[in-house]
From TrEMBL:
It comes from the Bacteria. Belongs to the cysteine synthase/cystathionine beta-synthase family. GO terms for biological process: cysteine biosynthetic process via cystathionine. One of its GO terms (molecular function) is cystathionine beta-synthase activity. Signal peptide: none annotated. One of its GO terms (cellular component) is cytoplasm. This is Cystathionine beta-synthase. The chain holds residues 1 to 330 of 454 of the full protein. It comes from Compostimonas suwonensis. Its EC number is 4.2.1.22.
Amino acid sequence: MKYANTIIDLVGNTPLVKLNRVTEGISATVLVKLEYLNPGGSSKDRIATRIIDAAEAEGKLKPGGTIVEPTSGNTGVGLALVAQQRGYRCVFVLPDKVGEDKRNVLTAYGAEIVVTPTSVAPEHPDSYYNVSDRLAAEIPGAFKPNQYSNLNGPRSHYETTGPEIWDDTDGRVTVFVAGVGTGGTISGTGRYLKEVSDGGVRIVGADPEGSVYSGGTGRPYLVEGVGEDFWPTAYDPSIPDEIIAVSDADSFAMTRRLAREEGILVGGSSGMAVVAALRAAASLGPDDVVVVLLPDGGRGYLGKIFNDRWMQSYGFAELPGESTVADVLR
Ligand code: PMP
């Protein structure tokens, strides 16, 4: 019989697929890595497993303990999966811009959530960083993974994501592109690929316009899970060779194209990463292999990016090719 012993054993080993339509005019091979095929639906399953294993080994998390973490949702799902298997309670702190679907996923796994305002500064007592610090201090037996400073995050990508990409491309990958949130994905995967290729793989970060990684001040943007208004220690700035800033409009337009033209239903940070990858690939030749990591699926964004009224309410233009049945039959 072929089966996994627990759901956690299915984390990682996600497939690569070639983009064929949105890459028109580009001669390099562009492959995307589908992290939504992880059991919790995102790349964050990888860091959750590694972080909890390490916390148990170091005695920071004991039987019956509580995991407290500020998370945009995906890290929470990963942590909730592992916690559930090992009998821990989970409390997650979310900024209010995170969609209701994402919140409901967390509670479905049995986690508790606390919602905080997006519009306050990180040092404000109601910011999601400070609220989670208070909860972690006051709940007995609490452990705060702190994905922004926990080096087991980048380490999980160094140990799994990087080797998977190298092996699946037979060492032919020349460019790796990922969005930067905590920075764990790009730092860990990028470090591995640079080491194994002796510097032969170029590492490109994708960042929302306005975020600090691409020189912004941290002003608000709508794409979720990426960009920051501070510099997390999980991010190693020596790894990326280049950071490309992408607007919300371009990120969301590409996210919709990926669903309509490639059959790949992913979130806004995936669209953002593909925009950056296509810009980086524009000057590359046919021997180049660009691998783009797509962190999560699109189901958590159906009320936003995939909702025409939501898109219009933020002034994102209606996309060409959208027509009603009446238009078709006219
Ligand atoms: N996209 C989404 C949807 C995410 O949740 C995250 C994690 N915050 C990222 C991209 C960025 O990954 P990382 O934190 O490893 O930089």
